[in-house]
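Fold this sequence, please.
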Amino acid sequence: MRDPRMNPFSKKACFAALLGVALASAANAAKKPGDDTSNPAYKTTDVVIAANTTGMPAKSAGFVHPGVLLNRAQLDEIKRRVAASIEPQKSAFEALKASKWGALDYTPHPRQTVECGSNSRPDLGCKDEQADSEAAYGQALLWYITGNKVYAENAVKIMDAWSTTLTGGHTNNNGQVQASWTGDVFPRAAEIIRFTYGKWPDDAIARFQNMLTMQFLPSLIHGTCENGNKELTQAEAIINIGVFTDNRSAFDHGIQIWRGRAPAYIYLKTDGPKPIEPPGCGPALWGNKGLTPQFVDGLLQETARDSQHANMALAGLVDAAETARQQGIDLYGEQAKRIMAALEFQAQYLPPNSAQPPENLEFNVHPTWEIAYNHFHDRLGFALPRMAAVLPAIRPTGVNHHMTWETLTHAGMGITGLPPLKK
């Protein structure tokens, strides 16, 4: 007999389902090309968007560099572990090195305009840009770990190819989220290369900063009232771009969007009978095809939609918090209960835990969760037994959009290199 707590047609679940139907807002209706789905809460911003014409990188805004997702001491520790054949970094390194993103002869495929329709129809440069951003980051990591300059030059080649070609931005229905996925990853590569390689010319760095500012930020800074995976990855991209371009106004705006959307994406019972609404958008859509699961601690806004989008959102939420923590800001602490609840809620349904999932819900593994687990378990000492059981079976994690090489960069890293929190 099925546990009534897991039954979507129990009284509580039926109420939730009815509520979920009521929560479907107009913003989540089918999107057409040209529709404005931006978030009215961010209609006007203080973000400075202007091309730098000096030919020199932007002046320092007080950020820690490298400081997008990783710091220098962390890079040194990864390098040490790989050299000493310490797991799981050793296997993760070998996986990256053997992957298409780590190829010594990798060739970039830049586009003047990246046009991405719904469901990749059309896909005019979308997969190419994703692959190139992921390769730039992978090659940057390989450069630092191995000292092989070919990897560094490959990363530079990829970034230079895009900064000299992309002038038409990101267009069509998925242009905005495309800018967030690749805008999450490109700055990770750029931070490592600029601050550890030393042979990326200043004018090329400035050009790449201009590309991120002029071709990415305009697609990102106004947020979105579509599903939360988009706005959370936007927040990460804005934060990461803000750090690499030394644009404090962008960084602060990304933090603002994160603070608005994060508590509206993961439910806690303390929220009351319905989830928190994202600022500016009204109720988000927690159901799928008229069915909404029971609201329980750790349920993500898109859990009913599919496991992929829910975890793309969680990864964006966590990655943004990680970069903020590298800069001395504790976003993690603001939503600690939600993030840990989301980890444990999902992990209970994954091997080897393998609880029977609620009807109409699916749970799959993804190349993520390492960064969050490292923060809450390894740095802070919280017990996360379900996720602790899941991670060994999925290591080393690979690549899926902005979820990239987390085992290599964060597994067991603890507090390595973290700056003190700002007061």
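The first helix runs from residue 11 to 23. The two ends are 53 Å apart (CA to CA).
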